[in-house]
Model the fold of this input.
Amino acid sequence: MRKLLLNIFLSCLSFTAVSLQAQQENYALVGGLLIDGTGAQPVPNSIVLVNGDRIEAVGAIGRLPIPKGYRLVSTEGMTVLPGLWDPHVHLLYNGHPDFGHWFSTYSDRFGSTTMPASAEQFLMAGVTSVRDLAASTDDIALVRQRITAGDLAGPTIYASGAAIMLGDAPATMPHITPVATPSAAIRATRKLIDSGMDFIKVLGATEQSQEIMDAIVRTAHEGGVRVTAHGRLDEELRVALKAGVDEIQHIGIQTPSLPEDILDMVEERTKSGNPLYWNPTVGTILNADELAADPEWLDDPKNFVGLPADIEQDIRLAIASADFPVQPSGAADTIKRKLQNLGERGVIFTFGSDEGTFGLPASEATWRELEAWVFELGMEPLVALKWATADSAAYMGVADQVGTITPGKLADIIAVKGSPLRHFSTLREPVMVIRHGIRYK
Ligand SMILES: [Zn+2]
Done:
């Protein structure tokens, strides 16, 4: 019966695909400044030919002939670049300030409603690939399948499914699987791998949970899947590093600097030839004061695209009466110090915004995180764009398929007005979005 209902549900949804107005044709994108994502200098007056779902050729006006039958799309005055990646998102949230309320009210609508809305907002924001790091495994698998089938507009999704929580979690949280013993952890990890999840996400490590963390990492690696661990607290970091996780999430600001014993563990690890990746997600803290001073953009209708009226109304009212988080004093210095110390010890930083929570709607989170790296942390815009495209694709193991504007790769391409090398906020409103050769905007 459930299967039948699901089929009816899916076939109803297929009607909405018509309203997406997405069409697959062969395109010639002509005239814009090309930033191809490899870190190479931009190419003016570019031509990008898209044939089916692939990039066929890349060149410049006067040098690359445009074959007959290609739909000409002028990119004059624009910058053409690869679709952005956001490798730390939470599709199930839509920026509501109250977690408890969100989970107790909408858990049974995540898969059908809130996650598809976030997916559509991401795509319209020029984000063509995401990694979701905590969702009900069934929900994220369904949303991913609908996007792959063309029933739903959204980015390519890599996912952890339910995050494994070392300890107890309330029953109202479908995106978390609590485990209390190594054998339960092994079962949970195997189940996620069997469900086709791409990463294992772990939360809540404590000194007491070392054996459980070890079991998760061992099981995941045996299954050929990497492990990423929440790591704001020093205690979490010690357990995660000892277990040999592949990647850490977040930079904690509870302490002003990382203790030497942790930095020593990091250095020992990176010097061993086994890279340690770290996804700092610092925008939410670095942008906090700006958000508190000028939250008007949170009311932008694009943040509510895909949401039914009752949920939109609920979020709007909650935002209107919310207390905005303030940047704790010294937080920016703490972040800079920790990033520098980790970089000196050989850590490789991965990109990600932690989209979904308050102040991080899918339609805005990615470019705002990247902008914080450019303006607050001094990253070169060209480097930032490579990091959020080619480097992210390489980290996910699909650099041969996507991530740069290179002949033969999947056509995930966006265009923005003006140049993000000078005006980074041009990334805020892409005027063209193509994913796998289908033009959505
Ligand atoms: Zn997160």
Observations:
- Residues 88, 90, 133, 354 surround zinc ion (CB under 6 Å).
- The longest helix spans residues 2-19.
